[in-house]
Amino acid sequence: MQFKLFGTKIYISFIFAAVITVMLFFDRTTLFLPSAIAIILHELGHLFAMWLCECTPKEIKLIPASVQIIRGFSSKPYGESIIALFGPIVNLVIFLVFLVNYLYFKDEWVIKFGLINLIIGIFNLLPVKGLDGGTVLYNIVSEKKGLRTAERLLNIITFVSSLTLFVLGIFTIINGKVNITVFIMAIYLLLSVVIKI
């Protein structure tokens, strides 16, 4: 499916829509929908920052395992870092608002949604490839030390993070629990270094 919104072409792949539908249908934890909403709010934070930095996206693609935003670079100072940080900032602000709400009204759903936003915000601030923290680190280091140094540093941090997740995954198996998400993240980070995704 493809359509235009505010001059931006939006493409939603059939597989993406099918995966979301299946996950909603089979989700027994009731966490998938609030997680999807938190991720959408995160991406809207990036889009708002792009608008602030006069760098509106030309195309947004929703495909399995990722959201691809095709745009030019921001001409504003620190524009790329501002765009990268706005997603996690939105999640962290939502967490604080929902935490205050929970302290007054003690609604369990409110704190769950707040914590989901906190996890997504903090996770995206990790200084590894493919995440917002990695983009910010790359921009800072490349400004001071050059592109090659920034790329090398980001590859090293991402590789070490990948190995750490593998060890953590093995440790959880030894303790009688299997967490496939840890292994998926470890493989994703390793591939981002090897094939530069």
Task: Give the helix/strand layout.
Layout lengths: L1 E4 L2 E5 L1 H13 L5 H21 L6 E5 L2 E5 L8 H27 L2 H17 L7 H14 L1 H28 L5 H15 L3
Parallel strand pairs: 2-3
Antiparallel strand pairs: 1-2, 3-4
Helix pairs in contact: 2-3, 2-4, 3-4, 3-5, 5-6, 6-7
Can you give a write-up of this model?
- The protein is α+β, with helices and mostly antiparallel strands and 197 residues long.
- The protein has 7 helices and 4 strands; from the N terminus they run E-E-H-H-E-E-H-H-H-H-H.
- It has a 4-stranded mixed beta sheet with strand order 1-2-3-4.
- Helix 3 runs antiparallel to helix 4 and helix 6 runs antiparallel to helix 7.
- It is globular, with a radius of gyration of 18 Å.
- It starts with a strand and ends with a helix.
- The model has no long low-confidence stretch (mean pLDDT 85).
